[in-house]
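Handout, section 4.2: multi-component inputs.
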Amino acid sequence: MATNRQKTTLGAVLIPATAWLVIFFIIPLLIVLVYSFLERGTYGGVQWSFTFENYQRLFNPLFLGVMGRSIWLGLVTTVICLLIGYPMAYYIATAPPRWRNALLLLVIVPFWTNFLVRTYAWILILRSEGLVNIALQSTQIIDKPLELLFTPFAVTIGLVYGYLPFMILPLYSTIEKFNFSLVEAAQDLGANDLKSLIRIIIPLTMRGIIAGSLLVFIPSVGAFITPNILGGAKTLMIGNIIENQFLKTRHWPFGSALSMLLMAVVLIPVMIYFRTEEARS
Amino acid sequence: MLKRLSRLSIFIALFVFTALLAIACVAPDPNASTSTPGSSSSPAVKTLNLYNWTTYIDPEVVREFEQKFSAKVKYDTFDSNESLYAKIKAGNPGYDIIVPTDYMVEIMVAEGILEELNLSKLPNRKNLSPRFQNLSFDPNNKHSIPYQWGTQGLGYNIKATGGEIDSWDEIFDPKYQGRVALLDDMRATLGVMLIYLGYSLNTKSAEEIAEARDALISLRDNVAAFHADTGQDLLAQGQVDLVVEYNGDIFQKMEENPDLRYVIPKEGTIFWTDNLAIPKGAPNRELAEQFINFILEPEIGAKNSNFIKYASPNQGAIDQGLIDADSLKDPGIYPDPEVLTKLKILEDVGEATRLYDEAWTEVKVSIGG
Amino acid sequence: MAISLPKSPALAGRKFPKFEILVRQWGGRSLGLFTTLGFAFIYIPILILVIYSFNLSRTSGVWTGFTLNWYSSLWQGATNQSLDISNILIWDALRNSLIVGSISTVIATVLGTMLAIALERFRFRGKALIEALVFLPIIIPEITMGISLLVFFSLAFQLFQTLTGIRLVLGLPTVIIGHVSFNISFVVITIRARLAELDPSLEEAALDLGASEFQAIKRIILPLIAPSIFSAGLLAFTLSLDDFIVTFFISGIGSTTLPLFVYGMIRLSVTPAINAISTLMLVASLVLVISSTSVQQNAVRK
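Output:
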């Protein structure tokens, strides 16, 4: 059924982006793949002798444990972002049209400030003499300051804060087009608000939920700057280990192998995403 | 909807950002000569591409250099030796001067990344203290010239310690539960433990490294955080009482908080040197050498050190009394000779790096849980 | 201000109408309250950031007094009165960040939109492969991407030099290329989510009436996914402004961006100058938001 014009249009939309990704991403990725089979050079980097040693090293409970923890933190972050982000996205998407862009911008504009000073601000909020503790102490809820800083809790807050826009923006773009007349129809048929929410709105915005979740989960698994600053570098994440390999230890092959592992592990939820896609279509 | 709303917002967005861009553009290119107006159009102006740590040079010095040599200085920044190494190793993007720390000079020399210095072009080298003319990582300044040096000791709040302290023992004291911050650097922190335990900073022995690792793990209750060179802020904020940090960082905070002190523990510690070096493929080699020679002048070396607050390797500057008297007197910045013998330089340990790496991971996993 | 659900006349015949009206009212109000709290969560650290830009002390977190020094030195840097080179460099860094940000956002949004449309509306061989391809730039750790791009560029430049004798170097263009590469994925995912929910019957109708695929895309799909394109663009711009690791490895002489500049400060001290310039950016952006609201008119949408 494909006419020539269809094919041309397809080509026009498909080829530029794909070509870009192939040249500027796939080829570099192949370099990493090749590196993961090489040996570390005497002073760092790589030397051209092949080995499977890097992959064998991966099966160390130490690394697998850190990977597990990173995934767990990623999941927690994603769920919290979803719980906070969905209502906010919903509110913005159903706001009067002339306010929508403004509200969306209000969400994202704070994230144009510098990441480092934003994270340092959280230190000022969470530390023993920080906002939270001062507020809790002055209202007599606690009498000794809580140790919030340099804990996994602080890391989670930092991650949620950093990735919230990644959840809100895709959710907004899906909810915004949601056809509310479907809800009216359902209510005419007897559904109440809660039912409408659960059985109509959420399933039909599922694409947005999944998109937002992936855009939060995937980067947060590999995050390491936030855990370093807010977690006092005590909460070791897989991102820290990989960074350490490339920089401090200068063991590029092992760093490459670890990256491959991380990519493989994270690919699983992505595969699930594809399956749900196929199931729906 | 590509209707009025979006078009208008796009227009306004462009306007605002153009405004910001305009301000940023009005700010002169530091590549333009900041000396005298009009001189930037001179065709004979040469460029020096400097790759340095941020704010690691007195801006006065840069201006003087530009004026004296009719040059423009382009200044880019990096944040760690390892990043510098990874970047330059892939091919010098065109830098004339880089500023690596001691162990990184050693590695770069071994990898053939640095040019050999033509010492005849650097007559001011005689101003360096003899010690700095022949350090272990680069004998006879073959590839690098020391720029600033410092130590990695203990910064502390004297109110919390109740007096002066003098030993690494202090961090093990249970009274500092959750009040100690260590450097988030495997060689620096494992190294300090090795020195404390009486071993070599650059040991390749698995047993010794394991001992250092266990010593660190025993600190788990005391360690509040591993900081990435923000230890001085944690100390000044009152978040911790003891911090392993570089001397200059602590001294900066001491100006604002008189309770802060710095000490080089009696067991010894790591002493580091940042160096000027010329990477291979530098486009303006001659100018680079002139720059290094210029930095080696006593007045210039003094200006830099007084600005950055680290120690100067320039004996000429010290002899001529150009260094801040307060800094000179302070054993934290210019240690006494006996202390100097206990200061060790970090060296690359080759294959054994992996032992440190694994030990470090184990420390982190144990402490962080 | 916001309506949670459109009012339904059917409510009249319901079993517990009063309860359901309550739920609706309270639902609406708690949604509003929740969103306000959400915005508070987002803005409190920003408020702190702004306040500390007036801090006399160089140390973050130790307030020693109020000062406008950081702003005045920025101003001096901007107008070439400053003696301190870092006051001048910071503006260069900001300029580079904005240039890279805007150009890479535009390219990534265009390419990403096209790719999203291709994946969502067409069938073709190798589609599954390309779908996987889109995810990879997000999955790959940033440092791995940075180093691999660095090695790629140096190999590519060497090859180019042997072929043509021209020596290319790292610089703003390579940074832009890197940013586009990871931004495309974010754009595609964001836009696809909305495209999937679009009713295809509108396009089918257009095609039946004789429009070409291209016209269908241009006049039907694009307007309908415009809010998506806007969100995706915002996301891409944000990612680009804050990117450090990938940018570091593929930047060249004179392409120091703001994050690069700031991270280089960690070794000595991250001063409130960064708070100040962040505040300026914030103010400029808020001006944008306010003006876009007050000038817009209610457009009839459906």
